[in-house]
Write a structure and sequence with these properties.
4 helices, mainly alpha, single chain
């Protein structure tokens, strides 16, 4: 696995975990209003955690799986 892909996967996992564990603080980091922060941060966090783990775990598979994980992440980010 290349360094940029590994870094991206670990960043996604870190952001996902922080959004699940500390939703209010993470929301402030992303400038989300406090009234909506808890549920939005947790939804965002669970999505980021799954995408990050999928990308990280694809490091041992073939390049097709890794490419699929990267394209899925790009598609989800583009929809945002």
């Amino acid at each position: 696995m290349s360094f940029p892909v590994l870094t991206l996967s670990l960043l996604r996992v870190t952001i996902g975990l922080s959004s699940l564990i500390l939703p209010t603080q993470t929301s402030r980091l992303f400038y989300v209003p406090p009234s909506d922060s808890s549920i939005l941060a947790r939804l965002f966090g669970s999505r980021e955690l799954v995408l990050g783990l999928y990308l990280y775990l694809s490091r041992t598979d073939d390049s097709k799986t890794r490419r699929t994980a990267l394209l899925l992440g790009i598609a989800v980010d583009a929809i945002d």
